[in-house]
């Protein structure tokens, strides 16, 4: 049994650069389901918003505490820092350089549970895994294995670090398309926006 997803917060046109990416073939029955993120938490948020997140019982207490602590640490953080957030059997990471997007992605996939289904003993296919938030959600809810594809270097580095603490993950640094080969990957300013299609086609 397998589950497949692909999620991105709303796309905006932005300057991009292109890099060559390995592309893995995908059958027509493995097209990713796209969803639009509805929540975002930017760089400067009020203490009230932080407290609201701390009281949100949709997440385990230690996860809420780590998210709250990450928000408080931000003014002292360097752009290279990763904020560890305990969730399930391991930890996921929010990057300081892209904190707003990472926090929104975590909220959409984990807090709001927009991919809620029966993951018991499932093998989950995560296409465009970003930094592993959905994969961690699936693992937390009973998936026995995750096969994740992520072509962008910085995202994949964080994904590798996350996967160490979650058993049964298999990672591929590759994009997914209908045919195998090599294609240009358009690297966007925000970490969720990288794509094989040029920004003008979004």
Any overview of this molecule?
The protein starts with a strand and ends in a 14-residue tail after the last strand. The protein has five helices and ten strands. Helix 5 (153-163) links the parallel strand 7 (145-149) and strand 8 (169-172). The radius of gyration is 16 Å and the shape is globular. It has 202 residues and is an alpha/beta fold. Strands 3-1-6-7-8 form a five-stranded parallel β-sheet, covered by helices on one side.
Kindly list the characteristics that best describe this protein:
five-stranded parallel sheet; alpha/beta; three-stranded mixed sheet
Question: Summary?
Answer:
By secondary structure, the chain is of the alpha/beta class. The chain is 26% helix and 28% strand. The protein is built from 5 helices and 10 strands, in the order βββααββαβαβαβββ.
């Amino acid at each position: 049994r397998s589950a497949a997803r692909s999620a991105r917060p709303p796309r905006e046109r932005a300057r991009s650069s292109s890099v060559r990416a390995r592309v893995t073939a995908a059958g027509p029955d493995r097209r990713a389901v796209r969803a639009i993120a509805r929540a975002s938490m930017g760089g400067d948020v009020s203490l009230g918003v932080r407290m609201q997140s701390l009281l949100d019982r949709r997440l385990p207490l230690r996860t809420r505490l780590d998210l709250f602590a990450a928000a408080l640490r931000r003014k002292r953080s360097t752009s290279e820092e990763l904020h560890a957030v305990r969730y399930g059997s391991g930890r996921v990471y929010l990057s300081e350089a892209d904190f707003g997007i990472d926090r929104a992605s975590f909220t959409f996939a984990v807090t709001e549970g927009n991919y809620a289904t029966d993951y018991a003993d499932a093998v989950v296919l995560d296409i465009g895994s970003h930094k592993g938030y959905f994969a961690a959600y699936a693992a937390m809810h009973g998936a026995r294995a995750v096969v994740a594809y992520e072509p962008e270097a910085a995202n994949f580095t964080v994904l590798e670090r996350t996967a160490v603490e979650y058993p049964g993950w298999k990672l591929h640094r590759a994009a997914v398309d209908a045919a195998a080969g090599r294609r240009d990957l358009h690297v966007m300013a925000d970490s969720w926006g990288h794509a094989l299609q040029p920004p003008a086609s979004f």
